[in-house]
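Teaching assistant's notes for section 4

Start the section by putting this record on the projector. Ask students to predict, before seeing the second block, whether Mycothiol acetyltransferase will look compact or extended. Collect guesses on the board.
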Amino acid sequence: MSRPLDVDDVLALLRAATAEDGVRPLSEDAELRLQHRAPGGHDLVVRSPDGSLAGYARLDGGAAELVVHPRLRRQGFGAALLDQVLELAGPTALDIWAHGDLPGSAELLATRGFSRARVLLQMRRDLAGIDPHPRPSLPDDVRVQPFRPGRDEDAWLRVNARAFAWHPEQGRMSRADLELREAEPWFDPAGFLMAWRGDPDDGGTLLGSHWTKVHPPGDAGDEAVGEIYVLGVDPDAQGMSLGRALTDLGLAHLRALGLAEVLLYVEEDNAAAVRLYESRGFRRFAVDVAWRRESPSS
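Reveal the predicted structure now:
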């Protein structure tokens, strides 16, 4: 009989891997779903001969993430975990995310027919040079105000889906996904900036938003680190310089909290965005890679 999943054991494994590798082994979404036992997806484990947890994987739709305890690597547990994932996924296209692009992941996946398909850059910059009191130029009928829990969710989800229609993860964020994040200790409406045209309670239209996040000490570095978490503008509002205005306001908010550094994630092949961020002082810091196995019929 298989043991029920012990979430605390898995979280301890994740902490050990983070301490060893300097990068979190699971995406935020996968870790949230694990912690809250959210419906959907599959949790898989492998154990060492003494019964201790050796590895964990989460398969959700066409994507998976794997992690093996640092002291038990190169002993076959990663391969055993991958075998479980492949058996459960069946003969369909599958992406496996390797956070940090560590050598062991490449060695394991390349020999199983996977190839590099997507590269996600983490970029960072210090906040010392950020204007603490930006005065962005906005149209007279546009105002920026904090997110209001319980009132602004539907408007934000609509604009997020439109702004990220091309993105395989962000563009599919649901009300349940949003509420999971609103329940997290790090969630702060004051750092979730919404740009409205007109009165949001009387027919106003949400044009874009900048959702910032603060990682506590030990999560993304020894000290707390800010993040440009989600920055999106409705396609119909392009050309109004809202993205730049919201960026400046969000960075000023993070600086006002006393943070020294900010990070963001961007697809490596989004050359225009990478150039923009580099021009704003961001530098490449870390890499996540999606390894893909195509469906035999593709």
